[in-house]
Amino acid sequence: MFRVLVFSTRPYDRHFLEAANAEAGYRLHFLEPALRPDTAPLAAGYPAVCCFVDDELSAPVLTALHEGGTRLVLLRATGFNNVDLAAAHRLGLTVMRVSHYSPEAVAEFAVGLLLTLNRRIHRAYNRVREGNFLLDNLLGMDLHGKTVGIIGTGQIGRAFARIMAGFGCRLLAHDPVADPECAALGVRYTDLTTLLQSADVVSLHTPLTPETHHLIDADTLALMKPGALLINTSRGALIDTAALIEALKQHRIGAVALDVYEEESHLFFQNLSDQIITDDVFARLLSFPNVLVTGHQAFFTQEALTAIAETTIANIGDFIAERPSANRLDPQRVQPSGVPPASE
Which of 20, 134, 152, 211 could covalently link to 309 via disulfide, CB atoms 3.0 to 4.6 Å apart? Predict the structure, then answer.
C-alpha cells in the first residue's frame, strides 16, 4: 500500500486527511515536526511526503528526500514559494499542490480583519471585559463609498472584490491580467502607484514570487494615502516588515492587519505562550496599538480543510496512475512571474 509521511501535522490535519483517505486507503503516517534538513531523513522509505506552507523544501532537503526514496511531494497549500522547483525537477521529484480550495475562506477573513481593524472591535472587546465602556479612541469610518485597492485579482482577490462591492466601495485593482468578473463588478484596473495613492484600504492577494517579494517596501509605503488601512492575508514577505515599522512610527499608515509574517516559520502554528519570543521585529509589530496580527488562519474553515484534504488524496491517485493533473508544478510551465497557468 502506498505510504505517505505527513509533516507539520496538527490534530485537524489528521482528522480531515483521514476522512478524505477513508475510501482510497493509503497508509498515512503523521509527524508533528516540520520538514527541515534534520527531519528529512525520517522520510526514508516513504515514496511520498506531505508538507505545509512553513515546511522547508530547499535543494538540500529535496536531495535528502530523493536519496531516501521519496518521489512525490504533496503540498497542502496553494502557494509554493517554499519549494525549490528547479531542484525538484533536476532530481525527478513530482511536486503537486492544491491549486484551489476555498477562496471565500481567505477573502471573508480579510474582510473580517478589515472590519475589526477599522472599528477597533478587538480593542472594544478587551475594554468591555474590564468594565470599561468608554468609546474614546474607537472611532472608525464608513466603508461605504471608500476606495479599496486590491493587489492581485486571482480567485481570492476576486472573492474579496465581490464582498467589498456589496459594501458599496469604489474598487481599484492592480494585476498583470484583468479579470473579467472583477471588471463586471466595476473594478478599475490601474498601475500600482495610482492604486496606493488613491486607496483608503489596500488588501494584498498576490502570490509570493521574486517579483512580488517586498512589493510593499519603504518606497511603496510612502505612496500610500495617509491614514490608509493595509491588510495582508497572502504571504508575509510581500511586505518589508522593517519598512512597515518605520512607516507606522512616522504615522504614514492608519492601521495594519496581518495574518502572515515574513519570518513566521519559527512562530506560527505552535504554542509559545509560556516562552519569550526572541524575534524583536515581531515584538515591535505587536507593540503598536493600530496593528492587528493573527496566526495564518485565513484558510481555516471546514470547507477549506475538506477541499485541501480531498485534493491532496486525489493528487496521490493521479500520481500513481500517471494521470495528467493541473495540480502538478512543472518548472517548464511556470511563467516568468512564478505563477503557473490558471493559478491563484
Answer: 20
